[in-house]
Write a structure and sequence with these properties.
Distance between the termini: 26 Å
Protein name: Putative conjugal transfer protein traD
Radius of gyration: 13 Å
Number of strands: 0
Shape: flat
Helix content: over 70%
Number of helices: 4
Structural class: mainly alpha
Strand content: under 5%
Amino acid sequence: MIELGGLIAKAGLVELTDDDRAVILGLLLEAAAKLRSDETGNQLTLWRRRGQRAFADDKD
C-alpha cells in the first residue's frame, strides 16, 4: 500500500488536489470505470507508455 501511495505522490496528485482524498479517490474510480469499458486495451497502452516515460525520466 505504501508503494501505491508513492505513485500517487509521484504523479503530483497530492499537490494538484490539495491533498483532497475524496478527489483522489474519485480520480481512481474514474480510471477503474475506463478500464471496465470497451477501450480497455487502448487505455492501458496509453497509461503504460506514460508511466514508463515517467519512470525513465526519474532515472535520469
